[in-house]
Known about the structure:
Elements: E1 8-11, H1 17-29, E2 32-37, E3 47-50, H2 56-70, E4 75-78, H3 93-121, E5 124-129, H4 133-136, H5 142-162, E6 167-174, H6 180-183, H7 187-196, H8 205-216, E7 227-230
Amino acid sequence: MTEFTPRTVLVTGGNRGIGRAIAEHLIAAGHRVAVTARSGEGPKGALTVHADVTDSASIDAAFTEVEQQLGNVEVVVANAGITRDTLLLRMTEEDFAEVIDTNLTGTFRVVKRATKGLLKARFGRVILISSVVGLYGSPGQINYASSKAALVGFARSLTRELGGRNITANVVAPGFIETDMTAVLPEEQQKQYLASIPAGKFGSVSDIAATVAWLASDDASYISGAVIPVDGGLGMGH
Length: 238
């Protein structure tokens, strides 16, 4: 393993669930961590900046605050996301547009704002939190799956644009992870998922956090445009 280098990290949606676990793991590792949150606070040791990824002005203000207090952002973890699950025939345009605006366009806003600093430093780690359903598919999640699948094209295009500047862009695709968001799924649906997971168990937020920490490290400097599944084998081949 290479020598550890502390970085300034921004995790969007870092006040709960997977985002909070990522922030906690990176803080414990010795990084300088800021999180965005629409409400609430991030974990102890993190700088919490209140921002909404659907609002470019609030994202700009959040980055400015982080830059002033922690220095230029070197690692961006685009984690903020929402669901509006329902079958296609019942899905409204608003259901579709809201999910795309948060999960995909929100990522665009965050990464674009970060890019100037990454280019100036000639270093960057862009880590996008997708989902196994982005490539595997899921009934009732056409909006969510579409937004998460699009992150693959985003990361790979960014790799081709900025790969020569020591900037990597990768996608982490969690499977069924035990969080507040997945806990609301019907019990029968949870049983179906469990039966299809080769590992025979659901994942934990720490599984995702450890993967993100590795992608942010110097050890992963030659990995870019990759999709890293953390799903117990649920989506293999997709």
